[in-house]
Specification:
Shape: globular
Largest sheet: 7 strands, parallel
Helix content: 25-40%
Distance between the termini: 12 Å
Strand order of the largest sheet: 3-2-1-4-5-6-7
Number of strands: 13
CATH topology of the largest domain: Rossmann fold
Radius of gyration: 21 Å
CATH class of the largest domain: Alpha Beta
CATH architecture of the largest domain: 3-Layer(aba) Sandwich
Order of helices and strands: EHEHEEHEHEHEEHEEHEHEEHHH
Length: 349
C-alpha cells in the first residue's frame, strides 16, 4: 500500500508523538508498504510573509539531520503547506494531530482512506470545540490509550480503535543493577505548563530538606532552564544511548509530573530500565503504571505530595524493589510487533 502520514511541524527535536509515528512508518516499510512522511512548518495554507518562508526553509534543512534513523524506503517530504496538491496520491493518508486532521478532512478520495492517529486530547494546543470536532470526523480513528478510548466513547465518537503504544525492548532495558543503584531521582523537564515540570522541581526542593544528599537529574529537549537550581544535573537533548544507559539506568526513582498525557513515554522508558516510577494520574500512564503495584501515584499539581512519595521510596527499599520488579514484568506486554500487526490489520480491513 501507499501510505501518507501528515505532520504539523518538521520534527527537528525529539518528540514522543513523532517517535511513535516514525516507528510505525519504519515497521510498515519493513512489511513492504510505501511510506511518505509529509511535514510542514505551518498548518496554515502558506506562510504569509517572506521571513516565515526563510524560517521554514532553515527548519527544513535542520530536520533532515534528524534524531531518528529511518528505513531506506521511508520517503521524507518537507513542504511549506499541506495543500492537497503537495500530497501524493495514496491508498491511505493518516493525520497525527488535530490540526492535520482538519486539513485531511478536506482532501479528495485520491488521497485514499482517511485515518486519524489520536495521541492525546490536544486542548493545550487548540480550543476544545475545535479539537472535539475532529474526533467526530468521518475517519477511522486510532487512540493510543484506554483513557482516550473511554473519552471518545463518552463523546459519542464512532469508528474508534485502541492500539497501545509500544516500546523497543532491544533499546530500553536494564544495564545496571536496579536494586543497588545510587539513590538518584530523575525527571523529564519540559517548558509546556501542562507537563508540570515546575511542580517536580519544587518537589525535589522539599525532598532535599529531609534528605540533603538526594541527587537530582533532569533532561529535556531545550536548553537548561535559567531557574533550575545548581544542584540539579541537567542534560540537554541527550542522545538515545546516553539517555538509556547514563540517565534511565542510573535512576533509582523516576518522577512524572504531567497534568495530562496521551501516553507517558518517558515513565514507561524509565520503568523498562529498572527505575521505580512516581507519577501523577495523568491518564496516559494507566495502561502500564498501576498504583501500588508497579508505580506510586502522586497528587497532580501538589509538590508536597510528590516529595512525600519521593521520601517514601528513598527510605523504603522493599517498596522500591517491589515496584521495580513489577514494572519490569509489565512493560514487555507492549511490543512493537503486536501494535504494528494491529495497525496493519486495520489498514487492510
Amino acid at each position: 500500500m501507499d501510505i501518507n502520514i501528515l505532520f504539523s511541524s518538521y520534527g527537528v527535536k525529539p518528540n514522543g508523538g513523532f517517535l511513535i509515528a516514525y516507528r510505525y512508518a519504519n515497521e510498515l516499510a519493513k512489511r513492504g508498504h510505501r511510506i511518505n512522511l509529509i511535514h510542514t512548518p505551518s498548518i496554515r495554507s502558506l506562510p504569509v510573509r517572506f521571513y516565515k518562508w526563510i524560517a521554514a526553509f532553515l527548519k527544513m534543512r535542520s530536520a533532515k539531520n534528524l534524531w531518528f534513523h529511518f528505513e531506506e524506503n521511508v520517503n521524507r517530504k518537507y513542504c511549506f503547506s499541506l495543500r492537497e496538491k503537495n500530497i501524493p496520491d495514496a491508498d491511505i493518508t493518516m493525520a497525527t494531530t488535530w490540526q492535520t486532521a482538519v486539513i485531511l478532512n478536506g482532501y479528495t478520495p485520491k488521497k485514499g482512506r482517511k485515518f486519524y492517529l489520536i495521541q492525546g486530547y490536544e486542548t493545550w494546543f487548540g480550543h476544545k470545540e475545535e479539537v472535539d470536532t475532529t474526533w467526530h470526523y468521518n475517519m477511522t480513528k486510532i487512540v493510543i490509550s484506554q483513557w482516550l478510548l473511554k473519552l471518545g466513547e463518552n463523546m459519542g465518537c464512532r469508528d474508534l480503535h485502541y492500539i497501545p503504544n509500544a516500546l523497543d525492548g532491544k533499546k530500553y532495558g536494564v544495564y545496571s543493577d536496579p536494586y543497588s543503584r545510587e539513590k538518584i531521582i530523575t525527571m523529564n523537564y519540559a517548558k509546556e505548563e501542562f507537563k508540570g515540570s515546575r511542580d517536580g522541581v519544587e518537589a525535589m526542593k522539599l525532598a532535599r530538606k529531609q534528605i540533603p544528599v538526594l541527587r537530582c537529574v533532569a533532561f529535556g529537549k531545550d536548553k537548561r532552564p535559567s531557574h533550575l537550581p545548581d544542584w540539579i544535573e541537567y542534560h540537554e537533548n541527550p542522545a538515545q544511548d546516553f539517555l538509556v544507559k547514563q540517565i534511565y539506568n542510573r535512576s533509582y526513582i523516576y518522577l512524572c509530573t504531567s497534568w495530562q498525557e496521551g501516553w507517558g513515554l518517558p515513565p514507561m522508558e524509565a520503568m523498562a530500565c529498572g527505575s521505580a516510577v512516581i507519577t501523577t494520574d495523568n491518564g496516559g500512564v494507566r495502561d502500564f503504571a498501576i498504583d501500588g503495584e508497579n508505580a506510586l501515584y502522586c497528587k497532580m499539581k501538589d509538590p508536597r505530595d510528590m516529595a512525600e512519595k519521593i521520601i517514601a521510596l528513598h527510605e523504603d527499599k522493599s517498596l522500591h524493589d517491589r515496584l521495580v520488579r513489577s514494572g519490569l514484568e509489565k512493560i514487555p506486554q507492549f511490543s512493537w510487533d503486536r501494535s504494528v500487526q494491529l495497525l496493519e490489520k486495520l489498514f487492510l480491513s
